[in-house]
Amino acid sequence: MWTSLIQFLLASLLVIAVAAWGSRALGRWLRPRPGPDGLEIRAVVPLGGRRLLCVVRWRGDDLLLGVTDRGVSLLDRRPAGGDEPA
């Protein structure tokens, strides 16, 4: 009885360890990378419908973009890494 319980626990730990390792490897593989011209999407916030806010890093600047089904508007532009305290 104890041997089957120990075997079950060891098998469960092995499955959990393999799942954790696999999800971490998959996360690294799926992580967005900057494009060839340095374009990188930093954050996306859906606002409902077909509207969203998007922060894009491009050529050393962070751009806050408003995106709708009618177009894209530049709302703010700051040097990358220039986070200001709230």
Category from helices, strands and their pairing: alpha+beta
Q: Assign an overall shape.
A: elongated
Q: What would you report as the Rg, rounded to the nearest angstrom?
A: 22 Å
Low-confidence stretches are none
Number of domains: 2
What is the helix/strand order?
Answer: HEEEE
* Number of helices, counting only DSSP H or I runs of 4 residues or more: 1
**Helix fraction?**
25-40%
Total strand count, please? 4
Largest sheet: 4 strands, antiparallel
Taken as a percent bin, the fraction of beta residues is 35-45%
Task: Please tell me the overall pLDDT.
Answer: 85
Which helices and strands appear, and what pairs or packs with what?
Blueprint: H1 2-30, E1 40-48, E2 51-58, E3 61-68, E4 71-79
Antiparallel strand pairs: 1-2, 2-3, 3-4
Descriptive report:
34% of the residues lie in helices and 40% in strands. The chain has a four-stranded antiparallel beta sheet, with no helix packed on it. It has one helix spanning 2-30; strands at 40-48, 51-58, 61-68, 71-79. The protein folds into two domains: 1-31; 34-86. The chain has one helix and four strands. By secondary structure, the protein is α+β, with helices and mostly antiparallel strands. A hairpin with a 2-residue loop joins strand 1 and strand 2.
Summarize this entry quickly:
The chain has 1 helix and 4 strands, in the order H-E-E-E-E. The protein is of the alpha+beta class and 86 residues long.
